[in-house]
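seq:
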Amino acid sequence: MNICICCGSMGYNPDMPDKITSRDGNGEYNTVFSRNIKKYFSPLRVNDMGMCAICQKYWRNK
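struct:
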């Protein structure tokens, strides 16, 4: 989960995979966690400081 440090918006990392690969590399599995997170939250990308795109834009214009 990503949380913006400025506005507190919550969302999942858009780069989160739908499937995970087993440690031995023999298969891929759908994860219930990934499915439920994507069902209840929207994607939210944050920068290295933890700010969302809207807060970054406001911060630059300030």
